[in-house]
Amino acid sequence: MSEGVAYHVAPPGFTKDQWEEFMEEGFLIIEDALTPEEVEYYLNAIEELAANDPKYDPTKTYSPSHVVAKHPAFTELIDHPRHVGYVYDVYGELLKLHLSQVFIRPKGGWHNMWHPDGARAVPYGVFSPELPLQIKVGYWLTDLPRPKMGNFVYMPGSHRLHDFEAYDTHRSVPGERILCCRAGTMTLMHASLWHRVEPNESDVARKNIFLAYCPSWVCEADRFQCDPEWLKTLNREQRIIMRSYRGAYDRTKPPAEDFPLFLDRETGADSDPEANPQVALHRRKRRTWVEKTMGIPYEGPLASLYHRRRQRQGLEVPTGEPVED
Ligand SMILES: O=C(O)CCC(=O)C(=O)O
Ligand SMILES: [Fe+2]
Fold first, then answer.
1. Taking residues 216-228, what's their average pLDDT?
2. Ligand 1 pocket, mutate which of 105, 137, 152 (most atoms under 8 A from CB)
3. How many CB atoms lie within 10 A of CB 221?
4. 215, 222, 231, 283 — which has fewest CB within 10 A?
5. Where are the domains of the chain?
6. Which residue, by CA, sits nearest to atom 6 of ligand 1?
7. What is the residue with the minimal CA distance to atom 2 of ligand 1?
8. pTM beyond 0.90, yes or no
9. How many A from CA of 123 to the centre of ligand 2?
10. Cβ-based neighbour number of residue 241 at 10 Å
């Protein structure tokens, strides 16, 4: 740790129950995450963004991205303590903002067909069948009491599929869930979840914000680099989470000054108690909340094979755990 740098403890994230629901459904709904005043605040910011954008057409779907750099209300969301702890729980010290986007979906506007987020021809799930390579945080700013209001629609549990019968269609599929929610709801989506968007046949324009996060070595979705002058206006955590590096490989091996991103929620330390102190801090393995809390298989699904091989060779099993056959 460097002298004179004010490090912060990671804000709260998943409870165990929330994590289990998220991994089972591919989706988590947190109602009343925003107060009515906060909803108003973000709605005003969306209105300002649209009013200053010559491309805005109120009869069409409006979906500007990289909005964190376009309005201070969205800049604050990069590391907002209301949600950043959740994505830190999964991506830990390599957390990056993948995308920031606002949607206004008016009556008759373009709406998405069934798809997962991320890569398509060879989806994320082929390489990462369990943990998401991207999590999308949604803030819902208009009441959506019924279908046909431009609602988000998903197939619960479908993050385990690499292909889907209704892919690239608008078809309604048995078992799908149409998100009907009050303004102020926050959602988290596993990027491999199959989803689509309802048509909007109502007179209410659906408005919401999305912030997607990923490990820093997964590509950005809405920028190559950030404006250096804008970066100077950010706090330390926001600047790190944008990961606007000059060297391509810095995304995989970020510079020493970007560690720690956060201090441990329980211990307040920048390192795990069992970590190897001979390894420099910015290269030292630091376990995510998911690894620490859920244990195997998050140690690595094949770790038990390594332990079994060591046991066969009469060597010490590193964890000291009994190996199941
Ligand atoms: O607007 C929505 O509800 C979802 C949009 C979407 O799926 C996307 O932008 O990838
Ligand atoms: Fe999507």
1. 97
2. 152
3. 17
4. 283
5. 16-251
6. 112
7. 152
8. yes
9. 13
10. 24
CA–centroid distance, residue 200 to ligand 1 (Å): 13
In the chain, helix, strand, coil percent, each to 5?
25, 15, 60
Closest ligand 1 atom number to CA of residue 179: 3
Beta bridge partners of 213: 97, 135
The alpha carbon of 138 is separated from its chain's Cα centroid by a whole number of angstroms, namely 9
Centroid of ligand 1 to alpha carbon of 112 (angstroms): 6
Task: Report the DSSP pairing between strands 95-105 and 206-215.
Answer: antiparallel
Taking CA atoms only, the protein residue closest to ligand 1 atom 10 is: 117
Sequence letter at residue 41: Y
Note the pLDDT tens digit of each residue in 74-112. 999 999 999 999 999 999 999 999 999 999 999 999 999
pLDDT confidence band for 4 (50 / 70 / 90): confident
Task: Reply yes or no: is the peptide bond before residue 301 cis, omega within 30 of 0.
Answer: no
DSSP 300: -
